[in-house]
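All the exercises in this workshop are built on plain-text protein records. Instead of coordinates, the fold is spelled out as a row of discrete tokens. Once this layout is familiar, the rest of the handout is easier to follow. The record below serves as our worked example for the rest of this section.
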Amino acid sequence: MKASVNASALALLLVMGQAAALDESALAQESGCFACHRGAAKRLGPSYKDVAERYAGMQNAEAVLARRIVDGTGPGLGWMKEDKARLPLMPPNDNVSPENALRLARWILGIEGEVVADAYFVTESVTVSGAVENPLELSVEDLRRFAHPQEIRVDYRSGGQRQLKGVLLRDILKKAVLVAHSPLDAKKAFIIATASDGWRVVFSWTEVLDSPLGEGALVIIEKDGRPLADDEGRIALVSAGDVHAESRHLKWLKTIEVRKIAD
């Protein structure tokens, strides 16, 4: 009986530990942390595994890391020089309270490998909201049935040439219709595209609707004749008219929001 009770208790602790890890992963996603970090892979910032190794043995490590999550790091920590980051510093994160920063710090310091798979970020639909007359929610099938599907060939520095299929961002925005009270409103409008991992790219309304760049701003649903895999979600975004297509290549597209600059 005692052995059975101990086994049950161990199983319960294991499940609770897994649930806690999932909770912290969700908190990291909601706080925008995954836009720059992963468990083991280098992104714009160092991996959490590298951070855990750097802080191992440091006195008051949790408190120090929590403070840096909220306030940012400032230059000089050396991540970029060590080729473990692509940005020279971590900016302050206003999305995180001191209490949640401490939770995240405690979680990060225990990470030894990857914490979330690409499948965690997969999006099956994209919403269009903000300063538009017709808010939209478009599934992959909705995009597939869109009036004017487009195919473009894009050269990526990191992955060669790819044939992409989808819907022009300008066509989606035309369907949503900008809320405009004067001709000047279009010049004040901008578009924020956000991924499920918190990464964002920004366009001005006029560059998408009224310039040649808009001919290459594509909401993607297929690459090389196949649906997008988990590493890009089911819906992504690219700006093929940029000097480098990677500059505004957004994986796991989740929302498109239209805003206006205040007068």
